[in-house]
Amino acid sequence: MQNEINELLKNTNKIVIIIEKLNITGNQEYVLSEKQQDEVSKVLKTLEDLILGIKINLGNSDEKLLIILNRLHSNIRNIKFNLNNYFQYIQKYINNVRVDIETLKEYK
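The structure assignment produced for this chain is given below.
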């Protein structure tokens, strides 16, 4: 389980790094290009797969971890659903993912 959580953290951090590399902090009405959306979508898909795998293996054995994973999964889905929207809508969920990463690090 620890390996899966480490893999999840590594990949979750990737999405934050990718978004930061886009360097669009000044323009809140920026919309990601199709190429940028594809790049982010691939990482989001990997994250969703990792989260679902951990949740399946976890079952109901660790309620606290399950809550963290559900919150992270929700934020990832919200990023995914808002990829073609203004960046300001994505940024809120990216910040939530950062918090989820820290919570996961503290948990492990």
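Interim note for the steering committee: The chain has one domain: 2-19+30-107. The helical segments are 2-22, 34-58, 63-81, 87-107.
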